[in-house]
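EI: anyone free to look at a 229-residue chain?
SC: sure, send it
EI:
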Amino acid sequence: MNASDLCGKIFIASYSGGKDSVLAMHRAINSGLLPLGLLTTYNLDSSRSWSHGMNENLMQQASDSLKIPLTIIKTPGNQYEENFESVLTEMKNRGAEVCVFGDIDIKGHFEWYSERCKKAGLIPFFPLWKEEREKVVYEFIDAGFFAIITAVDTNLMSKEFLGQLLTREVADSIDRSGADICGENGEYHTFVFDGPIFSKKVDFIVKDEIRCDKYILLNLETNPEITVT
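SC: here you go
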């Protein structure tokens, strides 16, 4: 499905807070799709978002800046598929026609999300699909987005990248280290806090670091002086 075929359609976005999901939304909006909402899955066991490990308040502050309402899908792992489909169906009933995803080239992700959308009656749209990973990272940075590296798989790359701002220079350093420049295989995750589709910078503090299996995560929290709606 090409973006031109979807111009004017109402979309929801699978939103992790990371660079690829934000860039996918950015492309969708620039292609004339109309945002209805953001969907973030939330791990009830860890009280953080699945995969990226973000807390609920920070995701809500990002949603406020993006001016796109956020739906938190709170789910244990054994009900993940069921609860994800249920919310997709709910959003379909509220007018959504398309669901946007930031995946690049992992076939299993493509198939799983496509099947969930099919059952909910939505069109799955992958704006970044099958593009060169280096091109995707550079486009994100050159578009004026700002992201901090919030999680590192210490089996695949050095902890020294944790907490760094994602720039071309840092991306190239990741590539030279032998890790994937885009982190598509989970080498690292990011949190996007400013850029062209944000109305204002997301204000946060780094509280501490958390060890979670092979990952080291930055524990980001909203600035206590900022009111989150």
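EI: The two ends are 35 Å apart (CA to CA).
SC: 👍
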